[in-house]
Design a protein that fits this description.
With about 240 residues, this protein is α+β, with helices and mostly antiparallel strands. It is built from ten helices and ten strands. Strands 6-1-7-10 form a four-stranded antiparallel sheet. Strands 2-3 form a two-stranded antiparallel ribbon.
Length: about 240
């Protein structure tokens, strides 16, 4: 009964936190095939998914057209067309004609809103907070957030190689070198980008000796059914760190 009440409180407290299910295995399959600029484009578009629209990207009740996407990505017509073509080729988006305009859809293989597939690991990406953060990031900076989605630990919010590990003493934390390999940057560029994400309250890094650990804000990514005491501890950590 206590767990039931906690779940109900969580649902009420997060009723304004719309999220998109981001499936781990499909994202891992394409991450190495996409540049940070291209994955940055995906994560900047995910806040425009809505309920019961089969993945159609919509803003203010109207489907996004290429000109709208150009403004979101802060790219010109040619650069935006190149990015969209690559994402369509790899299967992340599809394009349909409505009237004389193209409209864009996110494939349910990678992301869904309002539905989740059974027995498939996913991370909830909170749309409002993600948009607030990525609006202040260049595409290649935002792209890191997309590539780390499958490495977000389900209960501790650390980036790790075993994000489903129940025993927290056995979490295999991702090092700076490993993170650089995952996102396709050198270590110095990883540090610079993480610092930018830290300044926006998205990611925090902690250091013990030569060991660096990365933790993502639970208001950006989340995997559990209900929030826990640790959720509030992490929020407080971010608040203190931000000050």
């Amino acid at each position: 009964y206590r767990r039931y009440l906690e779940k109900e409180r969580y649902i009420i407290s997060t009723s304004d936190k719309h999220w998109v299910a981001s499936y781990h295995d499909p994202i891992k399959e394409i991450s190495d095939k996409l540049s940070l600029t291209e994955t940055g484009a995906i994560i900047k578009l995910l806040p425009y998914m809505q309920f019961r629209t089969d993945g159609k990207l919509i803003r203010n009740g109207k489907p996004l057209k290429q000109k709208d996407i150009q403004r979101i990505l802060k790219r010109g017509k040619t650069a935006t067309s190149t990015i969209l073509h690559k994402l369509e080729k790899i299967g992340v988006i599809s394009v349909n004609k409505e009237g004389r305009s193209n409209v864009y859809f996110i494939s349910a293989k990678f992301h869904e809103k309002g539905n989740v597939r059974d027995n498939e690991k996913f991370t909830k990406l909170y749309q409002k907070r993600t948009r607030e953060i990525t609006d202040k990031l260049a595409l290649h900076e935002a792209g890191i957030l997309y590539k780390i989605l499958p490495y977000f630990h389900y209960s501790r919010y650390y980036l790790c190689a075993n994000p489903d590990e129940i025993d927290t003493d056995n979490i295999q934390h991702i090092s700076r070198k490993e993170l650089a390999t995952i996102v396709g940057l050198n270590e110095d560029d990883v540090t610079r980008t993480v610092n930018k994400l830290r300044s926006l309250g998205a990611v925090m890094s902690t250091r013990t000796g030569k060991t660096v650990r990365y933790i993502v804000h639970p208001d950006v990514m989340f995997r559990q059914t209900v929030e826990t005491d640790w959720t509030n501890v992490v929020r407080q950590m971010f608040a203190e760190h931000f000050k």
